[in-house]
Amino acid sequence: MIHNIYLYILTAAAVSFLIRVLPLTLIRGKIKNRFIRSFLYYVPYVTLAVMTFPAILTAPQIPIAGILAFIAGIIAAWRKVNMVGIAALCCAVVFFCETFVAFIL
Amino acid sequence: MNRNTNAFKNGIQDGIPIALGYFAVAFSLGIVARKAGLNPFQGFLSSILNHASAGEYAEFTVIMANAPYFEMAFVILVTNIRYLLMSCALSQRFSPDTPLLHRLIVGFGITDEIFGISIARAGDLNPWHNYGAMTIALPSWAAGTAMGIIAGNILPTAAVSALSVALYGMFLAVIIPAAHTDKIVGSVVTASFLISFLVSKIPSLAAISNSLKISLLTILISGISAFFFPVKEDPEESSLTDEDQEVTVR
After folding, report:
1. Reported pTM
2. Whole-number Å distance between alpha carbons of A39 and B106
3. Which domain holds residue A69?
4. Taking Cα atoms as reference points, which of B78, B210, B25 lies closest to residue A15?
5. Contacts of B107 in chain A (CB under 8 A)
């Protein structure tokens, strides 16, 4: 059976939309349950943390560039550098690290 | 109204680095889309509607396999399940009387990065901040996908490699300051880094997709943290503190 690409795209889009929208529309007001409130408080930080590490190591061509970008990013964020600055710093670290390694080899 | 205009402008500003990172990532996604037989318009359509890197990667794999439509639905549900958690978390940042339309549009616009900049802001969420970020970031994501399909590999490898960490830098910009202010968040974040790293090294778990791992680890680590370190203050009190902080910062 041959499937229609547009139907595929629409199926995917519909499921994505429902996943994203249902909690926001169904949950009105503040949740009272302390465990659930605590759980939802930690979710953003945990999910961003597990998405960042170790994925940042495999994103560039060489892992050492990723490690250095990770460390530089943490130090900059600890010192309250803004988001754009941290993103640019991480890119620059990877770029220079890879250029340097390519130069050595 | 003025407050909304400001929030929209801030959103655009926060959206610029997201848009840059998106373009690069979506570009490589476009290369996968081309393999799956999508034309640039289809790639654009898929990205403007779905805007999910892992989810769309999975979507194109399903298209390539010519699998049934329900398999598409299931794969998208699993790969994008973290958006369900993010949506739950965002629902707690909305003032309860936020109209349905705002909830629908903000929900539609949830991505890892836009979620990241939303929760980084103190106090109740202003939908216009999200709209600003969406206005610049989502078209960039879609255009990047279309460009990837059209042009293949035109960016030099070194540039793609450097841009690939921009998104992670932004994630760090959200989690590290929170870890700095709240010691428990700091420990939870450190534990998350370690556990995530260990899980990625366990060979028997290699079959589980990355996005599913992210979802499972999020539920597990957040659940354990919530059990052992429940947040203390009641919601009204905490939102007041946030307001205070926001005023002080300004």
Report:
1. 0.73
2. 21
3. 5-104
4. B78
5. 17, 20-25
